[in-house]
Amino acid sequence: MPFLAERQPFGDQDAGPGSLSVSRLLCEQGKEIESLDAVIVEVPIALSFNGISYAVMMATPSDLYDFIRGFAIGEGIVTSPRAIYDIDVTPADSGIGMPGFDVNATVSSEAAHKLKDRKRSMAGPSGCGLCGIESIQTVSRDISGLESVALPSQDALDVAIGQMRTKQLLSQATAGAHAAAWCGYDGDIVALREDVGRHNALDKLIGWHSRHPTDGFVLVSSRASFEMVAKAASAGIGVLAAVSAPTSAAITLAKQVNLTLIAFASRGRHARYC
After folding, report:
1. Alpha carbon distances (Å) from 168 to 44, 159, 219
2. Superfamily of segment(s) 154-272
């Protein structure tokens, strides 16, 4: 039975299970013990726009409508969710023993023209942010500067961090999922998305936020990379908080676009880079 459909409170668009039970041999102190293990599902998700293939991402098959919405916004393919007219999700033969999925979004003609300028190749590993982009110039795509927004307090970060641990149900089951959460300024988590890839989790959250715009900030369970900042800024998100370290490129881009980047977020402390 699909794990996410049963246990993830915020997921309503699951195309397949988030975890599977597999047999294993646990080797410990010279003994082999056969047992069952819950492992996170990773399948190819083909993303298309107006029927034209754009990318294949290795991802967890939950919240796929939000996934392609957030991917389109975070990649700058559309500048508004209103430019996405329709979304279709269909199973596809992956050739790896479990079905993949084709996800096609019908977008405006203006967005379709952008695809010709920013085309990706057809394969991206889990959480791959820049894999498959055809030219280095595409990396520095134009991202508008953000207006300054309120900053979360340490108390709010403490609340969000504590809640994230309890709401990461797929991670609790498999120890293999990244998470991205939308948090109010009081720290309460309004929505959370999980995926085998950290960029995918953020895409899914951006897709959710495009349907439910509200004030707050993003908390991710990973490091803050260049592409995480780029996706957040493209979605108009002014604050990105990460529990782990930032990269040099992430800090540089955050300063350029006026995004507040918080890293090493933990109870009682955090570092703010811009």
Report:
1. 22, 14, 12
2. Cytidine Deaminase, domain 2 (3.40.140.10)
Question: How far apart, in whole angstroms, are the C-alpha atoms of residue 188 and residue 124?
Answer: 33
pLDDT at residue 1 in the model: 23
Taking residue 111's Cβ as centre, other Cβ atoms within 10 Å add up to: 21
Catalytic residues: 128
Instruction: Single out the residue of 206, 274, 208, 263 nearest to residue 237, CA to CA.
Output: 206
pLDDT lower than 70: segments of the chain: 1-16, 117-141
- Closest to 124 in 3D by CA, of 67, 200, 56, 54: 56
Assign domain 43-140 to a CATH class.
alpha beta
Residues of the chain with CATH 3.40.140.10: 154-272
| C-alpha–C-alpha distance, residues 239 and 216, integer Å | 8
* Cβ proximity of 224 and 244 under 8 Å: yes
Q: What does the pLDDT read at residue 232?
A: 97
pLDDT tens per residue, range 111-162: 988 777 665 543 455 555 554 455 545 555 678 899 999 999 999 999 999 9
Phi then psi for residue 134, to 5 deg, are -80, -25
Cα 96 to Cα 35, 41, 42, 158, 245: the distances in Å are 23, 12, 10, 41, 34
